[in-house]
Design a protein that fits this description.
Blueprint: E1 6-12, E2 54-61, E3 77-80, E4 86-90, H1 127-130, E5 131-136, E6 142-147, E7 152-155, E8 180-181, E9 187-189, E10 194-196, E11 201-202, E12 258-259
Antiparallel strand pairs: 1-2, 3-4, 5-6, 5-12, 6-7, 8-9, 9-10, 10-11
């Protein structure tokens, strides 16, 4: 009987690595796993590597894995820091070359990935591995993504007007206040116009001027975003110069589930 054992390895800039030095909550080394024919949620404490910078992330097979053809599935690999930041390593991207291009011991070859599809090959869709829940802040911005099992797979930070200081390496395109962000232009799309988070302004004038407050000059600025008070108000359709349309804060889940 062929035997396949595979795990993960994180290499740091100082040359240290986690292989065979760290164990998951089940007591198995993170560099290998003997469980077969079922999904397993794995978590490992990496506090002994605190302060180090990750250089590479490997999918690896151990020395006991025999040469052969193996189907080994991974989903939602991420590093959770003590400050709450969640750095995604792999979140079901069809192309794994940028992040998981390496293997170890020469047994694993032909590394690739695909998105599970219920219409492909008659396989049933597995909600545990295909569903992502969005957690929002007080204005509905997607601050964290969690898998169906409840573990975090990615997190995001926004400046007050929606700009991302460090966009995460995930497939999420619902960003500031839950609006869909175009990857090429970086603009957030509403029903009537586009918003530029880098400038904190709309890219076109308000198509519906409506009423304004003569005591507040910002209410007469047709490019202004929610009276320059983005921590409280939202403008979901791009037609509210005073930011009061749909301004009730969104608190928890803003889109759930999202199939990625």
């Amino acid at each position: 009987m062929l035997w396949g054992r595979r795990g993960v390895n994180i290499e740091f800039e100082d040359g240290t690595q986690t292989a065979w030095l760290s164990s998951d909550t089940a007591g198995q080394s993170v560099a290998e796993m003997t469980t077969q024919n079922q999904w397993v949620s794995r978590a490992a404490d990496l506090s002994s590597f605190a302060g180090k910078t990750v250089q590479a992330y490997y999918l690896m097979t151990d020395n006991e894995t025999l040469t052969g053809s193996w189907s080994i599935w991974d989903s939602d690999i991420a590093i959770t820091s003590t400050d709450g930041t969640v750095t995604p390593i792999y979140s079901r991207q069809p192309d794994v070359t940028p992040t998981l291009a390496y293997n170890y011991n020469g047994v694993a070859t032909g590394l690739n990935a695909f998105t599970e599809d219920s219409n492909t090959g008659g396989d049933a869709e597995t909600p545990l591995t295909t569903t992502t829940y969005y957690l929002g802040d007080q204005i509905g911005s997607a601050r964290m993504l969690v898998a169906a099992g409840g573990w975090p797979v990615s997190s995001d930070t926004f400046y007050p007007y929606g700009q991302e200081p460090s966009p995460p390496a995930d497939d999420n395109h619902y960003k500031f206040t839950g609006l869909e962000r175009d990857a090429e232009s970086g603009l957030d799309h509403t029903q009537f116009r586009q918003y530029g988070s880098v400038m904190g302004r709309w890219m076109s004038p308000d198509p519906y001027m409506g009423s304004y407050d003569v005591n507040n000059p910002q209410s007469m600025n047709r490019y202004s975003y929610v009276l320059n008070n983005p921590l409280v108000y939202v403008d979901p359709d791009g037609t509210s110069p005073d930011g009061t349309s749909g301004a009730i804060p969104v608190t928890i889940v803003i889109r759930s589930p999202l199939f990625m």
